[in-house]
Amino acid sequence: MCDMSALDNLVANTAYLKAQSGDEKEMRKRRQSLALPKPGNCESIRASVGQDFELLCELQPIGKKLFRLFLNKTHEYNITAHFLDELNDWELAEGAAKDKTCTNIINQFCKEGSTSFLSILSGEALEKCKAVTEKDFKVVMMGKVKEAVRDFLKGKPFTEYMLSPFFDKFLQWKEYEKQPITEKYFYEFRTLGKGGFGEVCAVQVKNTGQMYACKKLCKKRLKKKQGEKMALLEKKILEKVNSPFIVSLAYAYETKSHLCLVMTLMNGGDLKYHIYNIGEKGLEMNRIIYYTAQITTGMLHLHTMDIVYRDMKPENVLLDSQGQCRLSDLGLAIELPSAKTTTQKAGTGAYMAPEILTDMPYRTSVDWWSLGVSIYEMVAGYTPFKGPDGKKEKVDKDEVKRRIISEEPVFENKNFDPLTKDIILQFLRKKMDERLGCKGDDPREHEWFKSINFPRLEAGLIPPPWLPKPNVVYAKDTGDIAEFSDVKGIEFNAKDEKLFKEFSTGAISIPWQKEMMDTGLFDELNDPHRKESSTGLDQEKKSGTCTLL
């Protein structure tokens, strides 16, 4: 007899895996009708983009690319851009390559006889540049000189750029970015999981082939459980963050029944799955250090924006197809302006810090505690204050709470080495002001991380210790994912509709622009020799078909 649930799962997995490999013929066909808005239709957006140099020329990928193309047209400007590129290469280089890059920079940009001499410098920065040696290179070049070069670019070059055809092209892309996003812009594939308010499924942008995870939050369920504001807060926090170690929000839109967050697809499974379901419980030490380095950098990014994560646990750390990890599920995260604290209870029992359990005011300290618990779990295959499941004793929530508040962790597992014990103990200090990460210190400077070059890690230059298999779906079978029951008796009012509209802002600038560049659509639509289809945006809008993404 045919097992229909197994067949459904096979079909869903096959379609999902096939989508990731893409269909170039179909993609080319869809893209023929795409075109940027005409320059004359983009003037209204000129004032709204502002004049923030960092945002327009460094953070937004398309803006950064077009500004660089503008700089290339003027020799003096091109030299400064080339210098910043070389300085970045030096920062990421190691060993002999780093020394060689240092020497090249000094000879190329710091010698007055060189054709690439930084003649735009003046005053102290100029004198320091001319006198720099390999010994004081980092202090001088990464300090005064780099600052002076960026200040120069923020002046005349930036002003000229904003009056150039390159900036006009940027405005065309910003107008294109504003296209309304609906469910019609995506193909939807298998369900990857369920949450308290809805499901997560795999989706693909029709016109680029980019795969994402779509978190679909049921509007009625949100209202019934009073979760609407929490959903909006999560969306706003995701919109702010920009780190390779935190899931990126690419789109936010609504359907008749759901609020949808379209985020980075993490198809390598979560760390909890890897700890408990592959081989012996626990992870290899090189993987633990690598993942913890990425987690730490991601959490520091949140903390610099006064965001407390509050739900750090292996289950919320996801791996992508390249074996890199990211923090996910920011539903419990909270923004706390500088010096402000909270006593609100939030998190998962076994990972909660003593200050949460004892109603003490806290800020980011709770995240470092949870990280200490998570490192312990990655090594041992169980959490420190609950112990292994194999033990006969039944540890209830109250006992776990008592142990967290009053007991020290015990290191029985053979895989705990002295440095690993030390960093865990420093993260698990009961007093907040004694905890690693809470004393004005940077946890990344602990000796446990000595094998990690953090600038290279952030640049994606350190190969991961483990790679997911491309033909494996690291998610539950579709038949194992429980169905939601209908929510009845819920009606929406004007206040609800206002919140839904505030949530549904469409494409998020930085991830969207990155998608345009990574998938080749940026180069294709900018090609001056490209023949534009007679359909165009306006005609496609009338027909009701998808125009962008």
UniProtKB/TrEMBL annotation:
Residues 450-515 form the AGC-kinase C-terminal domain. Keywords: ATP-binding, Kinase, Lipoprotein, Membrane, Methylation, Nucleotide-binding, Phosphoprotein, Prenylation, Sensory transduction, Serine/threonine-protein kinase, Transferase, Vision. Residues 186-449 form the Protein kinase domain. Residues 60-171 form the RGS domain. ATP binds at residue 215. It catalyses: L-threonyl-[rhodopsin] + ATP = O-phospho-L-threonyl-[rhodopsin] + ADP + H(+); L-seryl-[rhodopsin] + ATP = O-phospho-L-seryl-[rhodopsin] + ADP + H(+). The active site is at 311 (proton acceptor). Residues 525-549 are annotated as: Disordered. It is a lipid-anchor. Residues 526-543 have a biased composition (Basic and acidic residues). PROSITE patterns: AGC_KINASE_CTER (PS51285), PROTEIN_KINASE_ATP (PS00107), PROTEIN_KINASE_DOM (PS50011), PROTEIN_KINASE_ST (PS00108), RGS (PS50132). One of its GO terms (biological process) is regulation of signal transduction. It is an enzyme of class 2 (transferase). One of its GO terms (molecular function) is ATP binding. It comes from the Eukaryota. Its EC number is 2.7.11.-. It is found in: Membrane. InterPro entries: AGC-kinase_C (IPR000961), GPCR_kinase (IPR000239), Kinase-like_dom_sf (IPR011009), Prot_kinase_dom (IPR000719), Protein_kinase_ATP_BS (IPR017441), RGS (IPR016137), RGS_sf (IPR036305), RGS_subdomain_2 (IPR044926). GO terms for cellular component: cytoplasm; membrane. Transmembrane segments: none annotated. Belongs to the protein kinase superfamily. AGC Ser/Thr protein kinase family. GPRK subfamily. Retina-specific kinase involved in the shutoff of the photoresponse and adaptation to changing light conditions via cone opsin phosphorylation, including rhodopsin (RHO). This is G protein-coupled receptor kinase.
